[in-house]
Specification:
It is a single chain. By secondary structure, this protein is mainly alpha-helical. The chain has one domain. Helices cover 41% and strands 8% of the residues. It has a two-stranded parallel ribbon with strand order 1-2. Strand 1, helix 1 and strand 2 form a beta-alpha-beta unit. The longest helix is centred in the C-terminal third of the chain and has 17 residues. The radius of gyration is 13 Å and the shape is flat.
Length: 73
């Protein structure tokens, strides 16, 4: 893998956040950028605006996504 990677796991994903963190570390050992933001209390579909209880996490998750896109465009 040579392309930068952005990971936004949640605590309620099917894949445990710890596994995603381990993947990020493994990717970094190859010299590839792996940016990680964990949302421990959010559901998998946290960016679905119908989940008003995760609004803070949604807003927070958009920032690194937009920054990531801008910095790698």
């Amino acid at each position: 893998m040579s392309s930068p990677l952005l990971l936004l796991p949640t605590g309620q994903d099917n894949t445990p956040a710890a596994d995603v963190e381990a993947l990020a570390e493994e990717v970094r050992t190859t010299g590839t950028e792996a940016e990680l933001h964990v949302y421990p209390d959010a559901v998998h579909s946290l960016l679905d605006r119908r989940f008003e209880q995760y609004q803070e996490e949604c807003v927070d998750a958009w920032r690194p996504m937009l920054d990531f896109i801008d910095s790698h465009a």
